Amino acid sequence: MNEAATARRSRITPEREAELYRAVLDLLREVGYDALTMDAVAARTRSSKATLYRQWGGKAELVVKALRSQKPGSIADIDSGSLRGDLHAIIAREDDCAMEQNAALMRALSMAVHMNDDLRQAFKELLVEPEIEEFRRIIRQAIDRGEVRPDNPALEYVTHMFVGAFATRTLIDDLPPTQRFLASYIDAVVLPALGVSTG
Q1: Vertex 101, ends 100 and 106: CA angle to 5°?
Q2: How far apart are CA 161 and CA 38, in angstroms?
Q3: Which residues are CB-contacts of 54 (< 8 A; sequence separation ≥ 6)?
Q4: How many helices (H) and strands (E) does the chain have?
Q5: Can you tell me the distance from the alpha carbon of 69 to that of 17, in angstroms, rounded to the nearest whole number?
Q6: Contacts of 70 (CB under 8 A, 6+ apart)
Q7: Could you tell me what percentage of the chain is helix, strand and coil, using 3-state DSSP and rounding each to the nearest 5?
Q8: How open is the CA angle 177-197-140, to the nearest 5 degrees?
Q9: What is the pLDDT of residues 83-94, one digit of tens each?
Q10: For position 160, what pLDDT does the model report?
Q11: How far from 20 is each of 41, 69, 94, 112, 161, CA to CA, in Å?
């Protein structure tokens, strides 16, 4: 981040930033992305619209950063000594209630992401790509430990498997994703695809 951006961000305290993000997510749940406006965020948070634009640049960045603020932290430091342990540690970071809320938010945003270039770009740059890179580091650890062959053809699809399980749980089963469901999915689908024993 450059110095100007750092100076810009330093004007809002972490507590105030968290309050703004909560308000944005509440509005997102209430009205959806298309109807969410910077005017509404300013009114809800008793902020000036100029401050919001100065801090976040626009609605897309503000919404994606609000979503990212709900993530339970980086997975970069996870290293249980096994891929199974690492993957189970990742899903253990959020309880079922938080997972259900996040899944509902992602469903609410899915159409808007496809229809709005600014949102899609912010979503990809600020949320998807950083998480994919952290996830790849977990997989590289497993390769380095000799758990997964580097030429395993399933490696290219691990992220897709995870996102698919999370996103389609409600669509197919009419149930929210849960820790239990994802843990069983890891053991039944992801690890066997990578040639890793679940015993």
Answers
A1: 95
A2: 35
A3: 8
A4: 12, 0
A5: 9
A6: 21, 25, 98, 101, 102, 105
A7: 75, 0, 25
A8: 75
A9: 999 999 999 988
A10: 92
A11: 8, 11, 22, 21, 33
